Amino acid sequence: MKNRKMLLIAAYLIGAVVDAAVSIPMFSMAFSGDYTNEVSYTLASGAILMIGWTFLLLWAAYKPVERRDVLLITLVPIIGLFITSLVINSQSAYPLEIFLFRIIGGPLLAALYVFTYLFSKHVTIERV
User: How much is the pTM?
Assistant: First the structure.
């Protein structure tokens, strides 16, 4: 049981680190002055949402078993970003490293979340 709880915590923390790391270049680009106001606003909005999701995952890690459904909810933006990356890359090429990060990283994180959710299915909630 303890291993399953630790796996839940690890999954939340991995997602939080990824979200926080991805938000940094988004903020940087948003305020670089290289884009139109609309694009800068969109980048900043996305970065703020990524930071919000970071805190959601940290909150879930605090009570990992009780909040394990957050893993399934998190699949929605992961899958959405994956599909968006495929569509945008088909219209104009990303730099290879960004494309590979999105195409490989998203499914890996999604697989981790699905595996962790299923693996932790029978963990009991400890009442204090």
Answer: 0.86
